[in-house]
Amino acid sequence: SLKCIMGMITPDKGSIKIDGHETTRLHGHKREHHMSKFGMLFQGSALFDSLPVWQNVAFKPIHAQHMPLKQAKDLAVAKLAAVGLTPEVGELHPSELSGGMQKRVALARAIAPRPQVLLLDEPLSALDARLRDQLRQEIDALLRALGITAIYVTHDQSEAMALGDRICVMEAGRIA
């Protein structure tokens, strides 16, 4: 489960290694450091509607990395551009955006802190087929351009085949 990889749940058995380091049962500061290596894109966008888009994108760099606001806004604008959105979108609030634009903002937020690994949990399942196909291609191109390792959870076989370099089929929590 992605929650096990993130350190939010401890697996019943087995181990998780990141860059050769055992991370299965980390606690406290070590766990926070481990989690900072990951970007996460959930099925729902999980955006803060009380904040403008640029602050949603720069949320982790501002709060976890203590990045100054001007630098954070510049980072947000660059990440929005990477997902095909203009700087003007950064001034809007998430509720003013379409579902596809919200998903792009969520992706920009996930890559903003420059994660080593991007975890994607059914990120396109709530979108219509045409938009899902378009975003799938864009996510693939972006991940390859950034050179980010990604773990992509999906029930959609065509999504898995289009995006996966390696595919693992799971059944009841085990590799089938």
Give a written overview of the molecule.
The chain is α/β, with parallel strands linked by helices and about 180 residues long. Helices cover about 45% and strands about 10% of the residues. It is built from eight helices and seven strands. The protein has helices spanning about 1-5, 30-35, 55, 60-65, 70-80, 100-110, 130-145, 155-165; strands at about 15-20, 20, 40, 115-120, 150-155, 170, 175. The strands form three sheets. Strands 3-4-5 form a three-stranded parallel β-sheet, with helices on one face. The protein has a two-stranded antiparallel sheet with strand order 1-2. A two-stranded antiparallel ribbon has the order 6-7. A hairpin with a 2-residue loop joins strand 6 (about 170) and strand 7 (about 175). Helix 5 crosses helix 6 (about 100-110). The two termini are about 15 Å apart. The mean pLDDT is about 85.
Pick out its properties.
two-stranded antiparallel sheet, globular, 43% helix, 176 residues, 12% strand, three-stranded parallel beta sheet
As residue ranges, the low-confidence spans are: none
Number of helices: 8
Query: What fraction of residues sit in β-strands?
Result: 5-15%
**Which overall shape is indicated by the principal axes computed on the Cα atoms?**
globular
Q: Biggest β-sheet, characterized?
A: 3 strands, parallel
For the largest beta sheet, what order do the strands appear in spatially?
3-4-5
Number of extended strands: 7
Sheet/helix structural class: alpha/beta
| Overall pLDDT confidence | 86
Order of helices and strands: HEEHEHHHHEHEHEE
Radius of gyration, in Å, reads: 16 Å
Distance between the termini: 14 Å
Helix content: 40-55%
